Structure formats: structure tokens, C-alpha cells
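Exercise 7.
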Amino acid sequence: MRKQLSEILLQCRVINGPYASKRGDDYGAFLIMGPCGALLKILCSGTDAENGWEHVSVSRDKHPPNWQEMCFVKKLFWGDDEAVMQLHPPSRDYVNHHPNCLHLWRPLRDAIPLPPSILVGPKG
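Solution. The predicted structure, written as C-alpha cells, is:
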């Protein structure tokens, strides 16, 4: 996760209410206009060294965020050289507090294994 959040993101930080945080916190809520013209509600749990994860959730009012919006949020919080993931856990482990919310995760202790890119398609 980026050591310093972008100035644009800092200007979108929620500073009042139950999700309030302040400049310098590595967690917080953010309301930002996404690349498709919809308001994105973002909760960043920051770096949880005790549990070994970085986590950001992204939601919209009427439907889940799309791929372009999730890529936009990934770039806000992580560098181009960092892999993050969305997970589809076993059904018994599902937790769904918001039907239009998706999550980005990065483990702190291990690198995310990546398949060979050719399994997706040829580059270029």
C-alpha cells in the first residue's frame, strides 16, 4: 500500500461522522468521483500487521463497481508493481454487509501467486 495517499484522495477523506479519520491515518473512508462518473464509497482498513493484510472496500449505490472503477481504486492505494486481489471464498465463509461492495486485498507476509500471463491471452 502506498506510504502516502495522493492529495486528490486526501481531499476526499471523510473527516466527520462514524467513519471519520484524519490526515496521516492509514485507514479511513473516502468519497470520490470514479472514472465512469459515479460516486465511489471507499473504506480503507490500512495495513493490519496483526492479521497480515491490507484491505480496501469499494461500493456504489445501485450496483457493484465495475472493472474500470476497481482498477482506478487499486491505483489510488497501491503501486503499479504491487499485485492485489479480489477473492471468491467458499460459500460457507461469505460475509455480505453491503450487496454493492467489492474488496481488494493484499497479504503482507506472502507474495500473491500469479499465473503465467499467456493463460489470459497473448501480450500486445
